């Protein structure tokens, strides 16, 4: 176990609360494609003024994917544009727009949902994981979703409204680590716990995994929680494939790990399994990797 901090980039939704409320209102009357077009025009300004984010993204395409200079530059633009589309889709959803989502691996989610024990659902900052909260739901279990407490008020309110209709309760990350007690209690009562598996907040303990042919730190929390409670873990990735279409992938994490091994060893094996699944998805959707800092530092 090591300590590492990913909190140098929080990834909050941009804009003031007034701007976000106005955007919600506009989505009721204006097609989503119009907002995509506006996003395409403003991306160059983000690339110009957010130099740290630009350098991190450019290095990802150059060093990790081995692309040439021009290809890497265009990939950064495509990456920023895809993020803009994902953010617009969230506001469109808040405004009542509908999206189609296909799920690959739904039987595994249904099997664990029907079983008595709780389980951990681990997410990542690729695609649009929030969409999973509106599709991957079950009346049999309540989901407790760990979320970054510093997100903008408008977004948190809309999430709470939508998640409340989907049997999901948000658990903000607390400085005093009290959120861990909530998540532990949720697992003990047989509920689902959703946690990000690719960014370190709160506790800075990490597990180093091989990721894109280099060592990278992953948060220890989700994997230790699952290992210590001896519960199953699912990785869920929700990727944008069209203007109004998403594809979700549900994958078991750490299948076949010897239950007799110490919890720490099992947690490390689960983290390595998740890193492999995440790399597979990112290689398939390279412009939907939304970690704008040096992940490998």
Question: What does this entry look like structurally?
Answer:
With 297 residues, this protein is α/β, with parallel strands linked by helices. It folds into two domains: 17-94, no CATH class; 99-288, no CATH class. It is 44% helix and 20% strand. The strands form two sheets. The chain has a seven-stranded mixed β-sheet, sandwiched between helices. A three-stranded antiparallel β-sheet has the order 1-7-8. Strand 4 (143-147), helix 6 (153-164) and strand 5 form a beta-alpha-beta unit.
Give the gist of this structure.
The chain has helices at residues 17-26, 32-49, 51-64, 69-94, 106-114, 153-164, 179-188, 221-229, 263-284, and strands at residues 2-3, 100-104, 119-123, 143-147, 168-172, 192-196, 205-211, 214-219, 233-242, 245-252. With 297 residues, it is of the alpha/beta class.
Helices and strands in order:
Layout: E1 2-3, H1 17-26, H2 32-49, H3 51-64, H4 69-94, E2 100-104, H5 106-114, E3 119-123, E4 143-147, H6 153-164, E5 168-172, H7 179-188, E6 192-196, E7 205-211, E8 214-219, H8 221-229, E9 233-242, E10 245-252, H9 263-284
Parallel strand pairs: 2-10, 3-6, 3-9, 4-5, 4-6
Antiparallel strand pairs: 1-7, 7-8, 9-10
């Amino acid at each position: 176990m090591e300590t590492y901090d990913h909190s140098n980039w929080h990834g909050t939704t941009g804009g003031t609360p007034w701007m976000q409320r106005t955007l919600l209102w506009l989505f009721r009357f204006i097609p989503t494609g119009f907002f995509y077009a506006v996003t395409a025009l403003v991306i160059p300004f983000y690339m110009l003024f957010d130099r740290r984010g630009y350098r991190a993204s450019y290095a990802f395409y150059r060093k990790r994917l081995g692309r040439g200079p021009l290809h890497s530059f265009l990939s950064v633009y495509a990456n920023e544009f895809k993020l803009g589309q994902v953010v617009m889709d969230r506001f469109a959803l808040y405004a009542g727009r509908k999206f189609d989502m296909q799920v690959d691996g739904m039987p595994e989610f249904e099997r664990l949902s029907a079983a008595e024990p709780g389980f951990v659902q681990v997410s990542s900052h690729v695609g649009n994981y929030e969409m999973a909260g509106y599709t991957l739901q079950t009346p049999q279990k309540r989901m407790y979703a760990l979320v970054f407490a510093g997100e903008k008020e408008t977004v948190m309110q809309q999430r709470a409204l939508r998640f409340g209709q989907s049997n999901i309760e948000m658990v903000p990350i607390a400085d005093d680590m009290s959120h861990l007690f909530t998540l532990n209690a949720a697992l003990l009562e047989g509920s689902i716990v959703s946690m990000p598996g690719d960014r370190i907040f709160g506790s800075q303990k990490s597990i180093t995994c091989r990721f894109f042919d280099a060592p990278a730190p992953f948060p220890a929390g989700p994997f230790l929680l699952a290992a210590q409670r001896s519960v199953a873990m699912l990785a869920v990735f929700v990727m944008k494939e069209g203007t109004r279409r998403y594809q979700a992938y549900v994958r078991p994490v750490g299948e076949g790990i010897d239950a007799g091994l110490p919890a720490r060893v099992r947690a490390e094996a689960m983290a390595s399994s998740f890193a492999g699944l995440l790399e597979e998805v990112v290689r398939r959707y390279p412009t939907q990797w939304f970690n704008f800092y040096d992940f490998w530092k």
